[in-house]
Amino acid sequence: MSGNKKILIIDDESDLTELIGFQFRSKGFEVKTAGDGVEGLDMVHDFKPDLIILDMNMPRMGGIEFYSMICGTNSRPLYPVLVLTARANVENMFKDLEIDGFMIKPFDINQLIVQAETIIKRKAEAQIKKMSAPPKETRRVCVVDDDPQVFKQLSLVLLENEFTVVPAKTGTAAMERMIKDTPDVALVHLGLKDIAGDFVILRLSQMAKTMDVKFILYTFRGQERDSKVMERISEKKGIWTFVEYETLTELLAATQNMFE
Questions:
Q1: pTM of the prediction?
Q2: Residue 30: beta bridge partners?
Q3: Which helix (H) or strand (E) holds 216?
Q4: Rounded to an integer, what distance in angstroms lies between the CA atom of residue 72 and that of residue 78?
Q5: DSSP label at 77?
Q6: How would you classify the pairing of strands 51-55 and 81-85?
């Protein structure tokens, strides 16, 4: 089971780290060690461990900070984590963390190895199941917004909800990009600086390659606008729905509705 499996041990107790590392190497694991979170962070992404054994209390960078640094946009760690802690009330301590296991110090080294092997086996089985599952429907969404902050936040919200994002930060870029890489849905900001969003949609809805794209035109609700003008804009050709939003969840909901 341990063949070619990698363990990264991060703990400032050098004697304990050496003992744990020796035991795992004797079982056939490839092992690297770090004395704190800073050292661990320097090597984790190149090493790509099958499991990180992580102490909580360390100098320079402790376990919680290290954990936060290896989490992706979905707030989950990129690698399995088994926590070592001297605290007994571990349930409250870890209730907000996506960890795979914990051991309370002092612990039996054999129990640590058994738990580590169980976690690695469970993760490997989950990966095999994921790979063998039927492919999910590709849901491609083009985000067209020249506000860097809105563009980034909206793209992250879509990615976290398993959409594929096709980026375009100007109206001109959107027309060029969507012709080459046609999405299912396009979220287009009305107030683009180079070309108004409703005109971008009009042009694309008249092109053979993009005429079937479901276009969502949006603008921030906090801006004062003439309601009659907004109504006329929403009725323009090619616009499937017009959203005046306050939170990005409203744009997410509008996007999800396009796939129902």
A1: 0.53
A2: 6
A3: strand 214-220
A4: 6
A5: B
A6: parallel
Chain segment 12-71, per-residue pLDDT in tens: 999 999 999 999 999 999 999 999 999 999 999 999 999 999 998 888 898 889 998 998
Report the C-alpha gap between 176 and 169 in whole angstroms: 11
Q: Is 32 exposed, middle or buried (0-12, 13-18, 19+ CB in 10 A)?
A: middle
- In the sheet that 185-189 helps form, which strands lie side by side, from edge to edge? 164-168, 140-144, 185-189, 214-220, 239-245
Structure tokens at 86: 């001297």
Alpha carbon 43 to its chain's center? 21
Question: Which strand (E) or helix (H) includes residue 157?
Answer: helix 148-160
Is cis: bond before 106, omega within 30 of 0? yes
Q: Are 51 and 80 in contact (CB under 8 A)?
A: yes
Q: Which two tokens stand for residue 92?
A: 């409250």
Tally of CB atoms within 10 A around 248:
15
Q: What is the pLDDT of residues 157-200, one digit of tens each?
A: 999 998 999 999 999 999 999 999 999 999 999 999 999 999 99
Q: How many CA atoms lie within 13 A of 182 on its CB side?
A: 11
